[in-house]
Amino acid sequence: MNYAYWDCPSCGGAMSAEEFATACGAGSCANGTQSRDCGGQTSCGCEPPACPPDSSMICWCRPACPKPEVPQLDEGCCCKASLRAALQLLCDSQIASLVDFDGAAFITDTYSAGSTLNTAAPETTPADNLTTLSGSFLRLSSCNCDLLDISAALYYPPSTTTGVTATQVSLCELAGIALQVAQGTAEGDITAPEATTRNYRCLKQLLSRRLNPCNSRCGECSCKCNCDDCCCTAGILGMLADNNLSRKVTLAAGLLILQGVTLLGTLGNVLVLANDNDQRIYFVCAAKVQFLG
How far apart are CA 270 and CA 163, in angstroms? Predict the structure, then answer.
Protein backbone atom coordinates (compact mmCIF):
# COMPACT_ATOMS: atom_id res chain seq x y z
CA MET A 1 0.00 0.00 0.00
CA ASN A 2 1.29 3.45 -0.87
CA TYR A 3 0.02 6.30 1.26
CA ALA A 4 0.73 10.01 0.98
CA TYR A 5 -0.47 12.53 3.54
CA TRP A 6 -1.07 16.25 3.91
CA ASP A 7 -0.10 16.85 7.53
CA CYS A 8 -3.24 15.14 8.72
CA PRO A 9 -4.26 11.78 10.13
CA SER A 10 -5.48 9.34 7.53
CA CYS A 11 -8.10 7.66 9.64
CA GLY A 12 -8.66 9.79 12.70
CA GLY A 13 -7.39 8.89 16.14
CA ALA A 14 -8.30 8.23 19.75
CA MET A 15 -11.00 10.27 21.39
CA SER A 16 -12.14 8.56 24.55
CA ALA A 17 -13.54 9.90 27.82
CA GLU A 18 -16.19 7.51 26.84
CA GLU A 19 -15.88 8.75 23.33
CA PHE A 20 -16.51 12.29 24.41
CA ALA A 21 -19.26 10.97 23.64
CA THR A 22 -22.12 10.27 24.89
CA ALA A 23 -21.52 13.85 25.59
CA CYS A 24 -21.54 14.95 22.04
CA GLY A 25 -23.80 12.13 20.94
CA ALA A 26 -23.26 11.03 17.36
CA GLY A 27 -26.13 11.54 14.96
CA SER A 28 -26.42 12.22 11.32
CA CYS A 29 -26.69 15.42 9.38
CA ALA A 30 -28.50 16.13 6.18
CA ASN A 31 -25.24 16.02 4.24
CA GLY A 32 -24.28 12.63 5.65
CA THR A 33 -21.53 13.87 7.99
CA GLN A 34 -21.48 13.16 11.69
CA SER A 35 -23.14 15.50 14.14
CA ARG A 36 -22.29 16.01 17.77
CA ASP A 37 -24.55 17.54 20.38
CA CYS A 38 -23.24 19.71 23.21
CA GLY A 39 -25.75 21.07 25.61
CA GLY A 40 -28.59 20.77 23.14
CA GLN A 41 -26.76 22.44 20.24
CA THR A 42 -26.04 20.19 17.29
CA SER A 43 -23.18 20.94 14.97
CA CYS A 44 -22.61 19.08 11.73
CA GLY A 45 -18.85 18.83 11.39
CA CYS A 46 -16.63 17.64 8.59
CA GLU A 47 -16.14 13.89 8.36
CA PRO A 48 -12.62 12.70 9.10
CA PRO A 49 -11.00 11.19 6.03
CA ALA A 50 -11.34 7.43 5.64
CA CYS A 51 -8.70 5.15 4.16
CA PRO A 52 -9.80 1.68 3.08
CA PRO A 53 -7.03 -0.70 4.19
CA ASP A 54 -7.37 -2.83 1.08
CA SER A 55 -6.49 -0.26 -1.53
CA SER A 56 -3.55 1.88 -2.61
CA MET A 57 -4.61 5.51 -2.48
CA ILE A 58 -3.71 9.07 -1.61
CA CYS A 59 -5.28 10.42 1.58
CA TRP A 60 -5.76 14.00 2.63
CA CYS A 61 -7.80 16.06 5.03
CA ARG A 62 -11.10 17.16 3.59
CA PRO A 63 -11.79 20.90 3.28
CA ALA A 64 -12.20 22.68 6.57
CA CYS A 65 -15.67 23.31 7.88
CA PRO A 66 -16.94 26.87 7.45
CA LYS A 67 -15.68 29.15 10.18
CA PRO A 68 -18.51 29.75 12.64
CA GLU A 69 -19.75 33.23 13.33
CA VAL A 70 -18.09 34.63 16.43
CA PRO A 71 -20.72 35.15 19.12
CA GLN A 72 -21.12 38.63 20.52
CA LEU A 73 -20.54 37.91 24.19
CA ASP A 74 -21.21 40.38 26.96
CA GLU A 75 -20.05 38.48 30.01
CA GLY A 76 -18.26 41.01 32.18
CA CYS A 77 -15.32 39.45 33.98
CA CYS A 78 -16.60 35.91 33.64
CA CYS A 79 -15.47 33.71 30.73
CA LYS A 80 -18.41 31.32 31.02
CA ALA A 81 -20.02 32.08 27.65
CA SER A 82 -16.67 32.26 25.84
CA LEU A 83 -15.46 28.97 27.32
CA ARG A 84 -18.67 27.19 26.33
CA ALA A 85 -18.36 28.58 22.80
CA ALA A 86 -14.68 27.59 22.58
CA LEU A 87 -15.23 24.09 23.96
CA GLN A 88 -18.09 23.51 21.53
CA LEU A 89 -15.44 23.56 18.80
CA LEU A 90 -14.41 20.16 20.17
CA CYS A 91 -17.79 18.74 19.15
CA ASP A 92 -16.68 18.89 15.52
CA SER A 93 -15.94 15.25 14.70
CA GLN A 94 -12.75 16.09 12.80
CA ILE A 95 -11.32 18.03 15.76
CA ALA A 96 -12.63 15.57 18.37
CA SER A 97 -10.82 12.65 16.72
CA LEU A 98 -7.50 14.44 17.33
CA VAL A 99 -7.99 15.12 21.06
CA ASP A 100 -7.38 12.79 24.00
CA PHE A 101 -10.31 13.64 26.28
CA ASP A 102 -8.78 11.44 28.99
CA GLY A 103 -5.65 13.63 28.94
CA ALA A 104 -7.02 16.84 30.45
CA ALA A 105 -6.32 19.23 33.31
CA PHE A 106 -8.50 21.98 34.80
CA ILE A 107 -6.85 24.89 36.62
CA THR A 108 -8.41 27.55 38.84
CA ASP A 109 -6.92 30.21 41.11
CA THR A 110 -6.77 27.75 43.99
CA TYR A 111 -6.73 24.14 42.74
CA SER A 112 -5.65 21.97 39.86
CA ALA A 113 -7.62 18.92 38.77
CA GLY A 114 -6.17 16.23 36.52
CA SER A 115 -2.54 17.31 37.03
CA THR A 116 -0.15 18.31 39.78
CA LEU A 117 1.97 21.43 39.34
CA ASN A 118 5.64 21.27 38.42
CA THR A 119 7.79 23.63 40.50
CA ALA A 120 10.99 23.08 38.49
CA ALA A 121 11.97 25.65 35.89
CA PRO A 122 11.49 24.31 32.34
CA GLU A 123 14.63 23.35 30.46
CA THR A 124 13.11 24.24 27.09
CA THR A 125 10.21 26.29 25.82
CA PRO A 126 7.39 26.20 24.98
CA ALA A 127 6.41 24.77 28.34
CA ASP A 128 3.78 24.74 31.06
CA ASN A 129 3.92 24.03 34.78
CA LEU A 130 1.77 20.90 34.56
CA THR A 131 2.85 17.29 34.92
CA THR A 132 1.04 14.36 33.25
CA LEU A 133 -2.54 15.21 32.24
CA SER A 134 -4.75 12.47 33.71
CA GLY A 135 -8.18 14.08 34.03
CA SER A 136 -11.15 13.38 31.76
CA PHE A 137 -13.26 16.03 30.05
CA LEU A 138 -16.64 14.35 29.74
CA ARG A 139 -19.07 16.95 28.42
CA LEU A 140 -20.57 20.39 28.65
CA SER A 141 -23.31 19.97 31.23
CA SER A 142 -26.48 19.86 29.17
CA CYS A 143 -28.83 21.15 31.83
CA ASN A 144 -26.55 23.68 33.52
CA CYS A 145 -24.73 26.44 31.63
CA ASP A 146 -22.37 27.06 34.56
CA LEU A 147 -20.63 23.66 34.75
CA LEU A 148 -18.45 21.17 32.91
CA ASP A 149 -18.73 17.45 33.62
CA ILE A 150 -15.27 16.05 34.34
CA SER A 151 -13.54 13.24 36.22
CA ALA A 152 -10.24 14.38 37.69
CA ALA A 153 -8.24 14.00 40.89
CA LEU A 154 -8.21 17.30 42.76
CA TYR A 155 -4.92 18.73 44.04
CA TYR A 156 -3.95 21.61 46.28
CA PRO A 157 -0.80 23.24 44.85
CA PRO A 158 1.68 22.10 44.01
CA SER A 159 1.00 18.37 44.45
CA THR A 160 -0.96 17.70 47.62
CA THR A 161 -3.81 15.30 46.98
CA THR A 162 -7.17 16.22 48.47
CA GLY A 163 -8.55 12.70 48.13
CA VAL A 164 -11.41 14.13 46.07
CA THR A 165 -12.26 13.16 42.50
CA ALA A 166 -13.89 16.23 40.96
CA THR A 167 -16.93 15.42 38.83
CA GLN A 168 -17.84 18.99 37.84
CA VAL A 169 -16.07 22.35 37.62
CA SER A 170 -17.51 25.86 37.53
CA LEU A 171 -16.87 27.60 34.22
CA CYS A 172 -16.66 30.95 36.03
CA GLU A 173 -13.80 29.71 38.23
CA LEU A 174 -11.65 28.19 35.48
CA ALA A 175 -8.41 29.96 34.64
CA GLY A 176 -7.49 27.42 31.98
CA ILE A 177 -7.97 23.96 30.51
CA ALA A 178 -5.19 21.83 29.03
CA LEU A 179 -5.84 18.99 26.57
CA GLN A 180 -3.40 16.43 25.19
CA VAL A 181 -3.39 15.51 21.52
CA ALA A 182 -4.56 11.99 20.63
CA GLN A 183 -1.74 9.46 20.35
CA GLY A 184 -1.15 8.31 16.78
CA THR A 185 -0.80 4.74 15.54
CA ALA A 186 2.12 3.51 13.44
CA GLU A 187 1.19 3.16 9.75
CA GLY A 188 3.66 1.69 7.28
CA ASP A 189 6.82 3.81 7.38
CA ILE A 190 5.24 6.30 9.80
CA THR A 191 6.09 5.66 13.47
CA ALA A 192 3.62 6.21 16.30
CA PRO A 193 5.40 9.42 17.48
CA GLU A 194 5.36 10.75 13.91
CA ALA A 195 1.65 9.96 13.65
CA THR A 196 1.06 11.79 16.96
CA THR A 197 2.94 14.84 15.67
CA ARG A 198 0.83 14.72 12.51
CA ASN A 199 -2.33 14.65 14.67
CA TYR A 200 -1.07 17.69 16.58
CA ARG A 201 -0.27 19.69 13.44
CA CYS A 202 -3.69 18.97 12.00
CA LEU A 203 -5.40 19.88 15.29
CA LYS A 204 -3.65 23.25 15.34
CA GLN A 205 -4.62 23.95 11.73
CA LEU A 206 -8.26 23.06 12.27
CA LEU A 207 -8.56 25.19 15.42
CA SER A 208 -6.81 28.14 13.78
CA ARG A 209 -9.31 28.13 10.93
CA ARG A 210 -12.24 28.29 13.30
CA LEU A 211 -10.95 31.06 15.57
CA ASN A 212 -10.64 34.80 15.27
CA PRO A 213 -7.47 35.57 13.33
CA CYS A 214 -4.70 37.41 15.13
CA ASN A 215 -5.09 40.71 13.28
CA SER A 216 -1.79 42.43 13.93
CA ARG A 217 -2.04 46.08 12.96
CA CYS A 218 1.40 46.76 11.52
CA GLY A 219 2.32 50.40 11.98
CA GLU A 220 -1.20 51.40 12.99
CA CYS A 221 -2.05 52.99 16.30
CA SER A 222 -4.64 50.64 17.75
CA CYS A 223 -4.82 52.02 21.27
CA LYS A 224 -8.53 52.50 21.80
CA CYS A 225 -8.60 51.94 25.51
CA ASN A 226 -11.47 51.98 27.96
CA CYS A 227 -9.58 52.76 31.15
CA ASP A 228 -12.70 52.21 33.26
CA ASP A 229 -12.75 48.54 32.25
CA CYS A 230 -11.89 46.87 35.57
CA CYS A 231 -11.94 43.44 33.92
CA CYS A 232 -8.85 44.19 31.74
CA THR A 233 -9.77 41.59 29.12
CA ALA A 234 -9.68 44.17 26.31
CA GLY A 235 -6.13 45.16 27.22
CA ILE A 236 -4.99 41.54 27.58
CA LEU A 237 -6.57 40.48 24.28
CA GLY A 238 -5.17 43.55 22.51
CA MET A 239 -1.65 42.90 23.79
CA LEU A 240 -1.62 39.17 23.08
CA ALA A 241 -3.59 39.14 19.82
CA ASP A 242 -3.76 42.46 17.97
CA ASN A 243 -0.28 43.69 18.87
CA ASN A 244 1.57 40.38 18.93
CA LEU A 245 3.34 39.80 15.61
CA SER A 246 5.19 36.68 16.79
CA ARG A 247 2.09 35.10 18.35
CA LYS A 248 4.38 33.77 21.12
CA VAL A 249 2.86 34.07 24.59
CA THR A 250 4.16 33.76 28.15
CA LEU A 251 1.56 34.25 30.86
CA ALA A 252 0.31 33.31 34.30
CA ALA A 253 -3.42 32.71 34.72
CA GLY A 254 -4.49 31.48 38.12
CA LEU A 255 -2.13 28.61 38.95
CA LEU A 256 -1.36 27.92 35.28
CA ILE A 257 1.95 29.16 33.85
CA LEU A 258 2.62 28.99 30.10
CA GLN A 259 5.96 29.93 28.56
CA GLY A 260 6.63 30.55 24.88
CA VAL A 261 3.42 28.91 23.66
CA THR A 262 1.73 29.89 20.38
CA LEU A 263 -1.53 31.84 20.18
CA LEU A 264 -3.82 30.13 17.67
CA GLY A 265 -6.60 32.69 18.06
CA THR A 266 -9.32 33.94 20.38
CA LEU A 267 -13.01 33.37 20.89
CA GLY A 268 -14.72 35.99 23.00
CA ASN A 269 -12.62 36.31 26.15
CA VAL A 270 -10.83 32.97 25.69
CA LEU A 271 -7.29 32.55 24.36
CA VAL A 272 -6.59 29.29 22.49
CA LEU A 273 -2.90 28.37 22.66
CA ALA A 274 -0.64 25.51 21.56
CA ASN A 275 2.51 23.96 23.05
CA ASP A 276 4.64 22.26 20.36
CA ASN A 277 6.95 20.54 22.86
CA ASP A 278 4.27 18.77 24.90
CA GLN A 279 1.72 18.75 22.04
CA ARG A 280 -1.00 20.29 24.16
CA ILE A 281 -3.81 22.75 23.51
CA TYR A 282 -4.95 25.30 26.10
CA PHE A 283 -8.14 27.31 26.60
CA VAL A 284 -7.30 30.25 28.89
CA CYS A 285 -9.68 32.85 30.30
CA ALA A 286 -8.28 36.32 29.52
CA ALA A 287 -9.90 37.72 32.66
CA LYS A 288 -7.76 35.34 34.75
CA VAL A 289 -4.43 36.42 33.19
CA GLN A 290 -2.42 38.14 35.92
CA PHE A 291 1.10 38.41 34.50
CA LEU A 292 2.65 38.52 31.03
CA GLY A 293 6.24 37.64 30.22
Answer: 30
